[in-house]
């Protein structure tokens, strides 16, 4: 059986074992879909590469649509990442395919573990355009190993952590970081699931080359399986 199918089957059989990632109430709130592809003519490279300008753009979109949270990005081909050195590999094919889901909201927004597990690893990936403070949790779902990466957190969230530290369902593990500490992005959470960490610690690629999609998609299921968010709205 495909691993993603196993994950979906576990969640279906154990709905109460899955909690929240952020404080979103589907009965009173709506999500706004933020499209970060070049198909979005309201967004350009100049905005994406200027953190403050990009932050104003995101904030305006959420405000105008009466949404506390924006969402998007799983397997989104973000060619708009051009000119960001972390994603542009020079003469090689750039890493424009986004592997996780981005949840956009204000700095200081609380982040929770939706499952019972433990700390796998953590690191401050302090490079321009990178995750900044990152926590990776490990879950055992009746023998199915699952890892979740939480990127763009606050630096203080790494204090007091240790590998193997137990984490409870719905336990707060951090907050959305400020621009200055989260890799120079507008405040958001990069939430990504992996079945295999491939030996990595405190980091895992959040974007890959489009030609690598079939390889990565086998290891990286849709975070919506855990998030269980309603359909997002557009303007």
In a few lines, what is going on in this structure?
This protein has helices at 3-13, 45-48, 51-64, 213-217, 224-227; strands at residues 31-33, 69-72, 76-77, 97-98, 101-104, 110-112, 117-125, 132-141, 144-151, 166-167, 172-175, 188-194, 207-208. It has 235 residues and is an alpha+beta fold. An eight-stranded mixed β-sheet has the order 1-2-5-12-9-8-7-10.
Polypeptide structure, described:
The structure is a single chain. The chain has 235 residues and is of the alpha+beta class. It has a single domain (3-227), classed as Glucose Permease (Domain IIA) (Distorted Sandwich), CATH 2.70.70.10. It is 16% helix and 26% strand. The protein has five helices and 13 strands. The chain has helices spanning 3-13, 45-48, 51-64, 213-217, 224-227; strands at residues 31-33, 69-72, 76-77, 97-98, 101-104, 110-112, 117-125, 132-141, 144-151, 166-167, 172-175, 188-194, 207-208. The chain has an eight-stranded mixed sheet with strand order 1-2-5-12-9-8-7-10. It has a three-stranded antiparallel sheet with strand order 3-4-13, with no helix packed on it. A two-stranded antiparallel ribbon has the order 6-11. It is globular. The mean pLDDT is 94.
Write the layout of secondary structure elements.
Elements: H1 3-13, E1 31-33, H2 45-48, H3 51-64, E2 69-72, E3 76-77, E4 97-98, E5 101-104, E6 110-112, E7 117-125, E8 132-141, E9 144-151, E10 166-167, E11 172-175, E12 188-194, E13 207-208, H4 213-217, H5 224-227
Parallel strand pairs: 1-2
Antiparallel strand pairs: 2-5, 3-4, 4-13, 5-12, 6-11, 7-8, 7-10, 8-9, 9-12
């Amino acid at each position: 059986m495909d691993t993603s199918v196993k994950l979906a089957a576990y969640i279906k059989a154990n709905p109460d074992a899955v909690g929240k990632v952020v404080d979103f109430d589907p009965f009173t709130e709506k999500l706004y879909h933020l499209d970060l592809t070049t198909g979005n003519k309201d967004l350009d490279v100049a905005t994406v590469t200027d953190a403050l300008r990009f932050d104003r753009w995101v904030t305006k979109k959420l405000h105008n649509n009466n949404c506390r949270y924006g969402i998007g990005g799983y397997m989104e081909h973000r060619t708009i990442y051009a000119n960001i050195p972390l994603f542009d590999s020079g003469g090689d094919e750039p890493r424009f395919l986004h592997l996780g889901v981005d949840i956009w909201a204000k700095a200081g927004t609380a982040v929770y573990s939706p499952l019972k597990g433990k700390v796998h690893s953590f690191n401050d990936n302090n490079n321009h355009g990178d995750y900044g403070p990152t926590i990776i949790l490990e879950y055992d779902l009746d023998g199915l190993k699952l890892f979740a990466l939480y990127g763009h957190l606050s630096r203080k969230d790494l204090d007091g952590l240790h590998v193997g530290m137990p984490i409870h369902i719905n336990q707060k593990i951090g907050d959305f970081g400020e621009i200055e500490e989260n890799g120079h992005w507008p405040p958001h959470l990069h939430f990504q699931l992996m079945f295999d960490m491939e030996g990595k610690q405190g980091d895992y690629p959040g974007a890959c080359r489009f030609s690598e999609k079939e390889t990565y998609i086998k290891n990286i299921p849709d975070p919506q399986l855990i998030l269980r968010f309603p359909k997002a709205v557009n303007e």
